[in-house]
Amino acid sequence: MKTTQVAKEGEFTRDWYLIDVENKVLGRVATEIASILRGKKKPIYTPSVDTGDFVIVVNADKIALTGNKLADKTYYSHSGFPGGLKSVTAGKLLEKKPEQLLKTAVKGMLPKNKLARHMLSKLKIYSGTAHPHKAQMPKVFEI
User: Fold this and answer.
1) What is the DSSP string of 72-124?
2) DSSP-assigned beta bridge partners for residue 75
3) Domains of the chain with bracketed CATH
4) End-to-end distance of the chain based on CA atoms, in angstroms?
């Protein structure tokens, strides 16, 4: 009789991956990052356990959006108070907070539960090429 293997904390190792997103399309990059964060590229993948790896993203300010998304795509946030709806276009968000643009795209591709918050904490996004994670010896991941 075959049994199903369920991953438990401590039975697997977490790797570090470095992804350069310069001139890469936002959605294509976000799906790959979400897949790595969930651990879907590992043979020990279990949906109810966070088996994913750490991801370091560099050059987030040079990410590409196709079509007219820089002008047309709008991100909304609400403070919870009357009249508290704020909107910002993707172009302005890319200028001011490029890290937030990519983080929002990846967050939308993760499961909507408590596990997603833990997975998202393993994502490190930086605007330039410099990052403080050289000691973890990240492997370069090509998209």
Assistant:
1) H-EEEEE-SSTT-EEEEEHHHHHHH-HHHHHHHHHHTTS-SSHHHHHHHTTEE
2) 88
3) 16-140 (3.90.1180.10)
4) 39
Is 20 in contact with 4 (CB distance < 8 Å)?
A: no
CB atoms within 10 A of CB 73: 16
Task: Give the pLDDT confidence of 82-115 residue by residue, as tens digits.
Answer: 999 999 999 999 999 999 999 999 999 999 999 9
pTM, two decimal places? 0.92
Half-sphere exposure at residue 122, Cβ-oriented, CA atoms within 13 angstroms: 24
Reference 16, options 124, 117, 104; nearest CA is 124
Q: For residues 74 and 136, what is the distance between their CA atoms, to the nearest angstrom?
A: 36
The answer to whether 90 and 65 are in contact (CB under 8 A) is: yes
